[in-house]
């Protein structure tokens, strides 16, 4: 994630394409610096209009550069909210247990930008119920 932008002009030198996972407070500046440095294509971690991450998509779209949005369905790290549920009641309380997804670790996002989720995780999309059942011991 990019929170401090002072070193970016030098870091962007010679970069044609970039992966962007910014903090909301600096996204406009990061995109501006990328454009000024000659970056031609940005792949960003953002979200659609229903998410808090929409400002990233808007900043990238408004840059005049080529872009690709990566809307993550679920991060592995987010499943830690289930740990207390599993320890306390022995189950995961999820409103849509049959919704299929392929959780990805945040550290893998840049790789996801260039490959399919199955290539990264080695697993096809699973429902929350299937994933929780397979990983429940990690929460105990």
Automatic annotation (TrEMBL):
SUPFAM superfamilies: NAD(P)-binding Rossmann-fold domains. It comes from the Bacteria. InterPro entries: NAD(P)-bd_dom_sf. This is NmrA-like family protein. It comes from Promicromonospora iranensis.
């Amino acid at each position: 994630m990019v929170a401090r932008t002072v070193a970016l002009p030098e870091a962007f030198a010679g970069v044609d394409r970039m992966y962007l996972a910014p903090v909301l407070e600096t996204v406009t500046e990061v995109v501006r610096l990328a454009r000024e440095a000659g970056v031609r294509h940005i792949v960003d971690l953002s979200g659609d209009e229903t998410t808090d991450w929409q400002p990233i998509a808007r900043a990238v779209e408004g840059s005049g550069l080529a872009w690709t949005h990566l809307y993550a369905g679920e991060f592995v790290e987010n499943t830690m909210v289930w740990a207390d549920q599993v320890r306390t009641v022995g189950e995961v309380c999820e409103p849509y247990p049959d919704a299929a997804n392929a959780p990805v670790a945040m550290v893998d996002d840049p790789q996801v930008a260039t490959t399919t989720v199955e290539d990264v995780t080695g697993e096809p999309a699973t429902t929350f119920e299937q994933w929780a059942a397979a990983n429940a011991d990690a929460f105990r």
